[in-house]
Write a structure and sequence with these properties.
Length: 875
């Protein structure tokens, strides 16, 4: 490490390494890692204010970059120590208030004696170099395998800005950022503000950006590279879209700009506050860890989620529009007003999920967005909330290492569902006024959950403290059931009965719609709809008494509430028999879900569910509902494949599901998107020699399906399935297709296809690469997700002990790596597998909380699989 010394060095060293005990923060309490605790962050933010950053980067595309960070701030006192974060840098120069000195730096942060600082204004300047990240955090570097071009993008959430520059890396130390970047002449540079000047320096250009408004560190960003740029000015704010040159042909900018402009208008109107960042840039980037990130004014999106080798389907467009809206909502709720600490991350994400779906339903063609939310997101929340690892929505976060421990379906979808039902409880306009008031009051500041709830309570004129305790500080999901008595064909008594698990006994208040239906020969006719606010164990509904006795009651019609509906016996029987008679697609979706929930709860055999699906699924024409049914059938196939040795039923059922999905594909009747959905399902359900041969014929052009064109994505899906089935000569297809498609997406698809092959040598080779880290993380991720399909249990068990023994060592690589590695936790749908996981949980007591939770969830899912397996016919 090259460091500079000056005449003040001796004084600096004496002060810097002082051991004097002070009443202020002692940096030795930090553990030497890049993480900081909530207590330490609060201590630091109490002393520091008015933070400004001046950042200067020299980018060449090489593996490392050079930079200068100047940090200006006001300090309340000069007692004790102060820490400044900078991760794994080679420090070249360090100065405080113009005085160069030799810093105490441990590779994660600088420890600075208060005696070197002024009470009031200070500045610290660090000149350094650092390797680019390759794991999706910090300043990530990607080399395009197609043309060799280098692309950079930043990702800082929760606390990875320190991998790019020196700063106080915590959300409640908002700051302005003034950025200067020198980069190759053919590069674009994008940040939170639009550049004000670009200097031409021949083969290089120097970009100057004006200072930003106050942002939390994780909301700031910088992206650079020879990106293709599209521009649009149809709305009140200039919009740009960026993507790599080699994938530009897969981008339809019209979709992006259309949904973005619609969203900006919607949110401007809804919040009553103009979009706060002046320009709206969106970038498609490779190797991204998540779906997207809400960097202020410069949002990043994962390429793999939003690029398509053919025209996007309606479902893909809805997904794109939904994520655009989600990240856009964050520009107000998250960027303009930001949480103080990471315990508030749930509110940030829940609100964006809720508002994103609302914007999708009210400002785009996807009016059925709440049905999609119900079928996809909300069901994940119900499942997560039913696991042994469930947790309250609002939980403490000890350190930045734990920021993402509770980022799951409870954080996103349950939180969004709770906000949705609160909107119904308070009234739509009341809720909107409360949100607008909150954003106006705390603009450019940090705020807490109490601040948000107080704004809503003030708008509603009611105390929400009990609601907050019940919904946000208590875990678990309630069941809702109707209790009715019929006499002489009329309802004589009707109530809603709420229940809760014994270990999570909270009963909650919410507003729902209760619908009554009569079945006739042609349809299931709705005869009554009643709004009910219920709380406690039983709420009587006298408004429904005296009405004709219904064939089916659904007590959460329209999905207002967050509650699991348990159908009464008569309603359940009607639901099974009358699925095809239900005209309302949302109700149909909810009845299908009730049947699937009954499988997971052990009340309905998987064989009965599959029989119902084989009869009813082929007639379903709604795309959203078809996607929901397909999802349950794919999960059914996993159960069947895990049970394939139990007898003929599993094999016969797999063949039946494969044949049904192929038949549905070929009977498309011109519905292209529906046809593609079922074809993709057939690829994943294809089973047996005949299906393998048909897939091979389609791939080679010896067969075709009317209305269907095989694009590159479908070709890779077929190749992966053929390799998983170990079809003849399927291994050679991988290399042949790589010649056709050498792109980054093609390389990752090839890895996934190879990893799925049922060959012990391949499993060993990829497992060794994963354990040694001998490949870049973006190449290991697809392998970890594909290595052990459920039917390859013998191959999985051959390395199960090794994978379990490596858990402690792998856990040291951190949460980003472990979120992928947990897919390698062994499963075998057996009592032996459950006992194996129990032994690990009992014996390995030093695992991270995230890994321990993954093990507990896997064990519970194994218990469910075993329950379902035991209920299958054996003949």
């Amino acid at each position: 490490m090259k460091l500079f010394k000056t005449a003040v060095l001796a004084l600096a060293l004496g002060n810097l390494f002082s051991c004097a005990v002070t009443p202020h923060f002692d940096p030795t309490k930090r553990d030497g890692s890049a993480f900081i605790s909530a207590e330490q962050a609060a201590e630091r933010s109490a002393r520091i204010s008015n933070v400004r950053y001046e950042l200067d980067f020299d980018l060449t595309g090489a593996e490392s970059f050079n930079a200068i960070s100047k940090v200006s701030f006001e300090l309340a006192d000069t007692e004790g120590f102060l820490t400044l974060d900078l991760n794994q840098a080679q420090v070249k120069s360090f100065s405080i208030n113009g005085n160069k000195l030799y810093p105490k730096y441990n590779g994660s942060y600088f420890e600075i004696s208060g005696k070197l600082l002024n009470k009031g204004e200070n500045s610290i300047e660090v000149q350094f170099s650092r390797k680019h990240s390759t794991n999706g955090e910090g300043l990530h570097r990607f080399v395009d395998p197609v043309d060799g071009k280098v692309y950079l993008y930043s990702h800082f959430e929760p606390a990875a800005a320190q991998q790019m520059f020196a700063l106080f890396d915590q959300p409640d130390l908002k700051a302005s950022y003034q950025l200067t970047v020198t980069a190759p002449a053919d590069w674009q540079v994008v940040s939170a503000t639009r550049e004000q000047q670009i200097e031409d320096q021949g083969e290089r250009r120097r970009w100057h950006f004006p200072a930003t408004a106050k942002l939390s560190p994780y909301n700031f960003s910088m992206h650079a590279g020879p990106y293709r740029v599209w521009e649009d000015s149809r709305g009140p704010y200039p919009m740009r879209l960026f993507a790599r040159q080699s994938v530009a042909a897969q981008v339809n900018p019209e979709d992006w700009f259309s949904y973005t402009s619609a969203g900006l208008k919607f949110f401007d109107d809804y919040f009553g506050i103009a979009y706060p960042f002046g320009k709206y840039d969106q970038l498609l980037v490779p190797d991204f860890l998540y779906g997207a990130m809400e960097n202020a004014g410069a949002i990043t999106f994962a390429e793999g989620h939003f690029l398509s080798s053919s025209a996007m389907s309606s479902d893909q467009k809805q997904s794109l529009a939904g994520v655009i809206m989600h990240e856009m909502a964050h520009q107000w709720f998250g960027d303009l007003v930001t949480m103080k600490w990471w315990n508030g991350l749930w509110l940030n994400e829940s609100f964006a999920s809720f508002m994103g779906t609302l914007a999708l339903a009210e400002s785009t063609e996807f009016k059925q967005a709440w049905q999609s939310f119900y079928a996809k997101g909300k069901q994940r929340a119900y499942e997560q909330d039913s696991l042994v690892t469930t947790h309250p929505i609002e939980v403490p976060v000890a350190t930045t290492a734990n920021a993402f421990d509770n980022i799951d379906a409870i954080t996103y979808q349950k939180g969004a569902s709770v906000l949705k039902q609160l909107r119904h409880l308070l009234g739509e306009e009341t809720f909107r006024r409360g949100v607008s008031q909150y954003l106006q009051t705390y603009a450019w500041q940090n705020a807490t959950l109490d601040d948000f709830i107080a704004s809503l309570g003030q708008a509603a004129g009611r105390d929400l403290s009990q609601w907050t305790r019940d919904w946000l500080y208590s875990a678990g999901v309630n069941n809702l059931k109707t209790e009715l008595v019929c006499e002489s064909g009329k309802i004589s008594f009707f109530s809603l009965t709420q229940s809760a698990p014994a270990d999570l006994p909270t009963l909650r208040e919410q507003k729902v719609q209760v619908a009554l239906f009569q079945a006739n020969r042609r349809e299931l006719e709705r005869t009554q709809l009643q709004q009910v606010t219920y709380k406690g164990e039983r709420t009587r509904v006298p408004a429904l008494e005296g009405l004709p006795c219904p064939d089916l009651v659904y007590p959460n019609y329209g999905d207002w509430g967050f509650v699991k509906v348990v159908l009464d016996d008569r309603s359940f029987a009607t639901a099974k028999q009358a699925l095809g008679k239900v005209e309302d697609p949302m109700l149909r979706a909810m009845l299908w879900q009730s049947l699937w929930d009954s499988v997971n709860d052990g009340q309905l055999g998987l064989d009965q569910y599959i029989a119902t699906a084989l009869v009813n699924a082929p007639a379903e024409q709604d795309e959203q509902l078809s996607a929901q049914i397909i999802s349950s059938l794919l999960r059914s196939a996993d159960y069947l494949q895990a049970s394939v040795n139990d007898g003929h039923y599993s094999r016969n059922a797999l063949l039946a599901l494969s044949q049904m999905s192929l038949r549905k594909t070929m009977e498309s009747k011109g519905q292209h998107d529906l046809q593609r959905s079922w074809f993709e399902a057939w690829i994943e359900l294809a089973y047996g020699k005949d299906a393998s041969e048909h897939l091979r014929q389609l791939l080679e052009g010896r067969a075709s399906i009317l209305g269907l064109t095989l694009d590159q994505d479908l070709r890779w899906a077929i190749i992966a399935r053929l390799n998983r089935l170990d079809a003849p000569d399927s291994a050679a297809l991988i290399q042949d297709e790589l010649t056709r498609d050498p792109s980054d997406a093609g390389q990752k698809a090839a890895i996934s296809a190879e990893a799925q092959r049922p060959e012990a040598a391949i499993k060993r080779r990829w497992l060794q690469k994963i354990h040694l880290g001998s490949e870049p993380f973006p190449k290991l991720r697809p392998a970890m997700g594909a290595l052990y399909p459920p039917e390859q249990q013998l191959l999985s068990q051959a390395s199960a002990d090794e994978r379990l023994s490596q858990l402690t060592e792998m856990d040291k690589r951190g949460p980003v790596f472990m979120r992928s590695y947990v897919q390698l936790i062994p499963t075998q749908c057996s009592r032996e597998g459950i006992d194996q996981l129990s032994h690990v949980l009992d014996s390995k007591t030093n695992l991270s909380s995230g890994l321990r939770r993954a093990l507990l969830n896997t064990r519970q899912q194994e218990e469910r699989c075993l329950m379902i397996r035991r209920g299958l016919p054996q003949g």
